[in-house]
Amino acid sequence: MQSSAQFLQPPATPLPPKQIQGTATTKTFSIPNQCSKFPRRELAIGTSSSLLLLLGSQAIEPLNLSRARADELPDNPDKTEPEEPEKPSRKVDYSSDQNVTKRAFLEVSVDGEPIGRIIIGLYGDSAPVGSSRFSNLVNGAAGVSYRRKEFVRIMPNYVQHGGLRSYGVDAELAKSTGRTNPIDNLVDEWEKQSEMCQGTKNVARSVSIIVRDPSKPPPKTKLVARGGKLEIDLEEVGKDVNGTEFTIALKDSPELDASALVIGRVLEGMDVVERIGQVKTVKENTSSPYFRAAKLIGDKRAVVAERGFNRPYSKVKITNCGLME
């Protein structure tokens, strides 16, 4: 009995501490050096618990990984959801795919020197009101035309023609022929165009009629004397457009979509439009603190100066225009 008891006695050499690491957090379990004093039963239980803890911690990570992969897989592996097709760009559909029903030409000069001819294709099907108005002003059917009228604004993305004046000879000629040129129909057509095409409509080469002025400030109140009494009246700041000004886009100009109705595109003579865009203009100075202060207090000189920004120094005129057969 004495020999068998000595055989069951655990070795006296101290065991090194064992460390067990988990997946989420790291925990260290140390077995004391004096393990030889533990009874046989307690030693077996402690070793078994440590072994189970080690196996359990190593099994957690594969279990979590398999659950994550199961979440990524569809319910039915054989059934895959079809990808939604990309929506086609409406910019191409509206600009290049429009049907050209009429062709008009504009001959342009800079300071009296001819620089070439611009041929414009009009969209009579998609913009009948705007294209009809432009063609009437080109061939003079409205009593007045764009002949001898100037381009008044040159921007980095587009050039703008001044159109007809709402006063003076132009207005008298239009009135004598019974053509009052109402703009309401143009606005309605512009609204329909905006609903039909959500993308950029004024792309490069586009020709558009300006139908509204988005930069026009709200009216101001003022006191006026009427019949011996003071009354409050609204003073309109700026002027409404008359639907005769038009633009030609040098580049894609989404800033024009809020005010211009696309009626056609340049078919030939884009080099002439680029020549117009190279004419020197009055430098815009809206970033000046003096200009901003004058604009803030309502100084009329700031309003007059702002109207002169981006105006060409040279006279860019339409010397001749009309419709082509």
UniProtKB/TrEMBL annotation:
May I ask which residue range the UniProt record assigns to the signal sequence? Answer: none
Question: Where in the numbering of this chain does the PPIase cyclophilin-type domain appear?
Answer: 105-323
GO cellular component entries: chloroplast
Q: Which domain of life is it from?
A: Eukaryota
Q: Which residues form a coiled coil?
A: none
List the InterPro entries: Cyclophilin-like_dom_sf, Cyclophilin-type_PPIase_dom, CYP26-2-like
A matching Pfam family: Pro_isomerase
Q: Where is the composition biased (Basic and acidic residues)?
A: 68-94
Residue ranges for the region (Disordered) are 1-21, 67-96
Q: Which GO terms describe its molecular function?
A: peptidyl-prolyl cis-trans isomerase activity
* Protein's UniProt name: PPIase cyclophilin-type domain-containing protein
Q: Which organism is it from?
A: Anisodus tanguticus
